[in-house]
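user: can you give me the structure for this one chain? tokens are fine.
assistant: on it. calling the predictor now.
[tool input]
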Amino acid sequence: MIAIVDYDAGNIKSVEKALAHLGEECITTRVPDEIYTADKIILPGVGAFGDAMKKLEDSGLADVIKNAALNGTPLLGICLGLQLMFESSSEAEGVSGLGILKGKILAIPPKEGYKIPHMGWNSISIKSDSRLFKDIPQNSYVYFVHSYYLKAESEEDVAASTEYIVHIHAAVEHDNIFACQFHPEKSGDTGLKILKNFCCL
């Protein structure tokens, strides 16, 4: 059973549909016991870092997610879900993230000829031994929608990267922790394969 964490942060329905398409059993929940007993956890999200952290803290879900991660349950963050798993974001100065992994979320700087938010398909450079990207061809295209990007503290945690004005850490994996800045549930067959790889861990 895969638990999708429900904290009113959007893109949950598209994740549910993608998992159903893959034949995976999932539950969308904010009940701690259901999250703790799940085989895997997905933390989705679209929106603002500060608002999302407040929802997670006020509901008690921040501690649930951190505890589940510490207990070794495979956890996948998607888009804002990735950003929340790190220490801080320049979008919300003074607001602490979950701090499951070390790194910071920074604003994509403006540049003439480029639009922000970064919205659309970009190719990714994939780390050769990545579990999340197993059997996915190098330079595959995935779908991004974001104005802030990850700069992970450890390059060893970076599973995939892309270029859009700056060098973007597009996905990470560290032990049982996985995250994608892009939306695998909106990235066609490549995205479905990424989700299937996570489900099969």
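assistant: here you go. The chain has one domain: 2-199. The first strand starts at residue 2 and ends at 5.
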